């Protein structure tokens, strides 16, 4: 399944703001299983394979907690290579006494928890894409109870959780937005994603390359929810990987046709969705 490499357009990296860097590093290393790729006094880049950063955390000066009922991060989702990896981390969480939520989405099996600043995290494994059910361009997804015993039966003898496997990628990001219709226009007509699932008028899921979703969008924080203040914890920006420069040029032109500006900042193409979620466009 090549849903997170070229020629697919996908979410590659997430940068989040935190109140206390040391506290966050301890959580992301000890609970999630990241390694530190690069660290400064106020930032850290987190990696699974020792080479590629999937998440960056930045400590703010005089940071405040992110207010409730604002736009921004609902969760970012780390995709594990195998169902057996999900079994290993479930065993690890049981040993550590980590409380998590869980769900079977038919296309995937997921665990949910939050970091010390309330940033939502999903850790999941995909079912084989040949089992996903599609009809008229829409993929069937659900929120069913997770079959934990079934997952644990996949555990390989002699294996244990030793941190995020090297093949872990940023599977998707899920965002709170203020207006679903306006947001859909930006992400589909502007960025070029396809709508692959809808949850009434409350949420929609979009992807490239026939994936079940690279981005989730919802209005569960309230229609018309404001963006959080810049000095609060939460999402700083996320990075979308585009397959080539020609695609980026087309995306920039299409985004600007929707009435949204794309700026070049220190060589990086930067835009913002209608709800204030900041995006880097990378090739």
TrEMBL record:
Q: Which residue ranges does the record assign to the VOC domain?
A: 10-126, 169-283
Instruction: State which residue ranges cross the membrane.
Output: none
Q: Which domain of life is it from?
A: Bacteria
SUPFAM superfamilies, per database record: Glyoxalase/Bleomycin resistance protein/Dihydroxybiphenyl dioxygenase
**Annotated source species:** Salicibibacter cibarius
Q: Which Gene3D superfamilies does the UniProt entry name for this protein?
A: 2,3-Dihydroxybiphenyl 1,2-Dioxygenase, domain 1 (3.10.180.10)
Q: Which PROSITE patterns match?
A: VOC (PS51819)
The protein here is known as VOC family protein
